[in-house]
Specification:
alpha/beta, 6-stranded mixed β-sheet, Rossmann fold, 18 strands, Elongation Factor Tu (Ef-tu), domain 3, 15 helices, single chain
């Protein structure tokens, strides 16, 4: 089911089980169209409701939603269809569509040599029976199962993917966090330019048509070597206030011994060191410096500036290959194999700040201020004055991202890192990932910032591999 495709005819959508287990609220997201739930779908929900996984929780929630709709309804009302309110509708508001349950046996003879399991074939037979009973109405199957949609197409059934969880139609529409000022920018927008200095920082206020497209805390630059690099601090209609960035490429402005190597890294360090920005998302391919910059900024503000009490780091424990099984030890010991990026970057940071303490002593000191936690135990927690890092966030769903971000208490800064081209979770894509979700939803907030790091700084081998493979 596509959110963007306008419909002129009221359709009847038959829901597959995986759609309800993917998004229990899908019952309320089909606008004015009607829904049909086969009896086999209810059986599959019942078989998958046990356990603590997100799939089991969603199955239970879908059953609760349907129970609320059925509660108090007579058999005649159920056969006629239950009114479906839109998401957010209060009592008394007009319903958008109707929900139908299978109340009697519906049969349709499928080809005898049609392969597949019984539930899938039962759903296909139900769709064909509904279509034959009402040929003037379009009946469509909605499923997250690609093979089932292909099988449906071979039988002449209209089948669609459920796309309401899709944040964007195309990843290219995701904000990059920067705006390039072309050669004619100042002619169009510089007529009412004013500038001033405050607390040693330089500010500009400009007014023009291009400003309306900007977002708070985005990078504005002229793409020239040693040219203008500023952060957009405030936007009021077509007037914007910009502040010149600190140049962290200079050795005089290093962060825990680390300097920026390109424009995007310099902007990332400006955001990471800015206490007025509470939420930061850093996207980028392997080797662009996301984790190193974040750890350096976190250590500088925890160890030197005492702005935060400690660094808390977590990530989605989704393996790249086959699972290696259970791991022994405490929560932190179990998380160590997943934190290879943390250990690798700590080696770089400890060698930069070793000094007279020695490398081993520095490593022990740094690790004592970094806590590694599993996402499984985040529910109900509140982080006060912490520097929280969520790594490999492309493998998180939008619900998991919400559960993590809402843990932030007063004085906490949260940094989300990830690469949407390296998703290991089976049912997530670049446009449905929780990382894409938060980047898009936070772009207009005054206390959030985002930048997509493009230039790899790991090695020439890693850079070439990212391009050639």
């Amino acid at each position: 089911m596509s959110r963007k495709t306008p419909r002129t005819q009221k359709l009847l959508y038959v829901l597959d089980t995986n759609v309800l287990m993917h998004d229990p609220a899908c019952l309320f997201r089909f606008q004015e169209h009607d829904l049909f739930v086969p009896m086999i779908v209810l059986e599959e929900l019942d078989n998958n409701k046990r356990g603590h996984s997100e799939v089991a929780r969603n199955a239970r929630q879908a059953s609760r939603f349907m129970e609320e709709l059925v509660q108090g309804a007579s058999r005649e009302q159920i056969e006629h269809g239950l009114a479906l309110p839109a998401v957010g509708n209060g009592h008394g508001k007009k319903a958008c569509g109707r929900l139908f349950f299978q109340t009697r046996t519906i049969s349709y003879e499928l080809p005898r040599d049609l392969p597949g399991n019984v539930p899938d074939n039962t759903i296909l037979a139900t769709v064909l029976a509904l279509q034959s009973n009402d040929p003037d109405r379009t009946v469509a199957l909605v499923s997250k199962d690609i093979n089932l949609r292909v099988k449906a197409a071979t039988l002449g059934i209209q089948a669609e993917d459920y796309q309401d969880d899709q944040v964007l139609d195309d990843l290219a529409l995701l904000v990059t966090g920067q705006s390039v000022l072309d050669d004619g920018f100042w002619e169009r927008n510089g007529g009412e330019l004013t500038s001033w200095q405050e607390d040693g920082r330089t500010y500009y206020k400009i007014t023009g048509p291009d400003v309306e497209k900007w977002f708070p805390n985005q990078l504005a630059h002229d793409a020239k070597q040693d040219g203008l690099e500023a952060i957009v601090r405030h936007i009021d209609n077509n007037t914007a206030t910009m502040e010149l960035l600190i140049n962290y490429r200079s050795a005089h402005h290093s962060v825990w011994g680390i300097n920026a190597r390109n424009r995007e890294q310099n902007f990332a360090l400006n955001m990471l060191m800015d206490p007025s920005i509470d939420f930061i998302t850093l996207l980028g391919n392997a080797g662009t410096g996301k984790t190193l910059l974040t750890l350096a900024a976190g250590l500088a503000q925890v160890m030197d500036e005492k702005r935060y009490q400690e660094i808390i780091m977590t990530r989605a424990t989704v393996p790249m290959g086959e699972d290696i099984g259970f791991l022994p030890g405490t929560e932190e010991e179990k998380m160590v194999p997943w934190m290879g990026a943390l250990m690798d970057n700590l080696e770089v940071l400890s060698s930069a700040e070793g000094g007279s303490w020695g490398r081993a002593a520095t490593n022990d000191l740094l690790r004592s201020r970094i806590k590694i936690h599993s996402m499984n135990f985040m529910r109900g927690r509140t982080f006060l004055n912490k520097f929280v890092i969520i790594d490999e966030a492309q493998n998180l769903t939008s619900k998991q991202m919400k559960a993590l971000i809402t843990r932030a208490g007063p004085g906490t800064k949260m940094v989300v890192l990830g690469n949407v081209s390296q998703i290991d979770t089976p049912y997530l894509t670049e446009t449905t990932s929780g990382l894409t979700y938060v980047v898009d939803r936070f772009k207009d907030w005054q206390h959030s910032g985002h930048i997509t790091l493009r230039s790899g700084e790991r090695s020439r081998l890693a850079d070439y591999a990212a391009l050639a493979l």
